[in-house]
Design the sequence.
């Protein structure tokens, strides 16, 4: 089941379990938010049900959005001004939809309060993992071997350079 909701002057098509970014809403992370401006509800095929329908969501985080640069210039006058703005926004996890007939469609998962920035970092393999804590112990053992290998290559390379200098001198 899906619904088209309106919040912050924009419309969003949501299903239970979706993670959406909307204009800033009041509340603390973990608060349940009721979005009651439902424009359309339905299954893949069906008639829209709008009266007394609402969507339930959990507020995951409130953050600043992407930076928008404002640049002003008047040509031939030496006037240039640069400014920026970051719009506050809220990240919501939709946990359920309730139709006008009272029929509820809940999400089976749990609404974690992991921030969207951390989820994005995990998707790009940039966030630290739990397994990563055990790996540095093996890296410290391998480090002396690598250092010894580097010193061996330096000692091998040094005589060649010295030999080249002696042949130039002769």
Sequence:
């Amino acid at each position: 089941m899906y619904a088209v909701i309106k919040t912050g002057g924009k419309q969003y098509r949501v299903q239970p379990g979706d993670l959406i970014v909307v204009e800033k809403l009041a509340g603390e992370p973990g608060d349940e938010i009721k979005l009651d401006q439902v424009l359309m509800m339905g299954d893949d095929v069906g008639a829209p049900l709008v009266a007394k329908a609402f969507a339930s969501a959990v507020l995951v985080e409130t953050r600043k959005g992407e930076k928008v640069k404002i640049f002003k210039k008047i040509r031939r006058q030496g006037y240039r001004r640069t400014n920026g703005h970051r719009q506050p926004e809220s990240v919501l996890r939709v946990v359920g939809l309730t139709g006008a007939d009272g029929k509820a469609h809940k999400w089976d998962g749990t609404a974690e309060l992991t921030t969207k920035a951390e989820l994005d970092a995990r998707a790009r393999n940039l966030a630290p993992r739990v397994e990563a804590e055990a790996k540095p112990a093996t890296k410290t053992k391998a480090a002396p071997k690598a250092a010894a290998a580097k010193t061996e290559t330096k000692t091998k390379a040094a005589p060649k350079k010295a030999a080249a200098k002696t042949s130039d001198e002769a």
